[in-house]
Amino acid sequence: EVQLLESGGGLVQPGGSLRLSCAASGFTFSSYAMNWVRQAPGKGLEWVSAISGSGDSTYCADSVKGRLTISRDNSKKMMYLQMNSLRAEDTAVYYCAKGLSSGWFPWFDPWGQGTLVTVSS
Amino acid sequence: QSALTQPPSASGSPGQSVTISCTGTSSDVGGYNYVSWYQQHPGKAPKLMVYEVSKRPSGVPDRFSGSKSGNTASLTVSGLQAEDEADYYCSSFAGSNNVVFGGGTKLTVL
User: Fold this and answer.
1) Hey, which of A45, A52, B57, B103 has its CA 20 to 30 A from B40?
2) Does residue A2 carry a pLDDT above 60?
3) For residue B97, what pLDDT band results from cuts at 50, 70 and 90?
4) d(CA B67, CA B36)
5) Is B78 helix (H, G, I), strand (E, B) or coil?
6) Strand locations in B16-57, DSSP E?
7) Does residue A59 belong to the interface with chain B, where contact is any CB pair within 8 Å?
8) DSSP 8-state assignment for residue B29
9) Residue scoring higher pLDDT (A23 or B1)
């Protein structure tokens, strides 16, 4: 069974940094692209970033470009999201989501349960 | 303001069919066959129901079907069941490695 477990969320002050992690199990991790998708409280979904199975290619929404950086360690079956210069509008549940192939396509299945990031002073 | 436009709500009685629309532009929905639909129950993670306009992942009932015409995509749920009550989100590739979502539709089973 595919399992994705996010961690690293919490309360951070504006301008601060945080690193989210996603631990994967139940599939050949390096064979699949991975994604981060977020959902502000009571709001809709927003795609954040993606990384190919090999890690050679990364993709990022314009709203977070230059502040949020995706990476992965295939030997540890882990994906990360380094979040810098955080703003109040970054407050959201951050979901880790698996792609359906090694190359990146814009669909995600399954998703983890999410980790809440709150940016507030 | 979401990039894709969905009706805020939809409803139907058990056994009936309901269709949820998702309207974009020629730069997203109309320009690519890369539309997907997600179901989200309260407090739960989203679940992929349809991808590449009309394909269903393994395990998704064939009561769920997707289609597209021009700049509008649609998700039809046939034979409505109580467990179908949830929020539904559409998404589309929007070029330049960008993905946009709709604002979501709350489906109520009467």
Assistant:
1) A52
2) yes
3) confident
4) 10
5) coil
6) 18-23, 35-40, 47-50
7) yes
8) T
9) A23
Take residue A89 and report the two structure tokens written for it. Answer: 């509008």
Phi-psi region for residue A65, left (φ > 0), alpha (ψ -120 to 50) or beta? beta
User: A89, A67, A69, A91: which is closest to A11 by C-alpha?
Assistant: A91
The count of other CB atoms within 10 Å of the CB of residue B5 is: 17
Q: Do B97 and A46 touch (CB under 8 A)?
A: no
Please list the residues that pair with B108 across neighbouring strands: B11
- Between CA B66 and CA B43 the distance in angstroms is 25
Indicate the residue of A61, A106, A111 with minimum beta-carbon distance to B36.
A106
| A44·B101 Cβ contact <8 A | yes
b/e for A39-62, b at 16 or more Cβ within 10 A? beeeebbbbbbbbbbebeeebbbe
B58 touches chain A (CB under 8 A): no
Is there a cis peptide before residue A110, judged by omega within 30 degrees of 0? yes
Closest partner CB to A113 (pick from B45, B100, B103): B45
pLDDT tens digits for range A64-82: 999 999 999 999 999 999 9
Give the Cα separation of B62 and B83 in Å (integer).
15
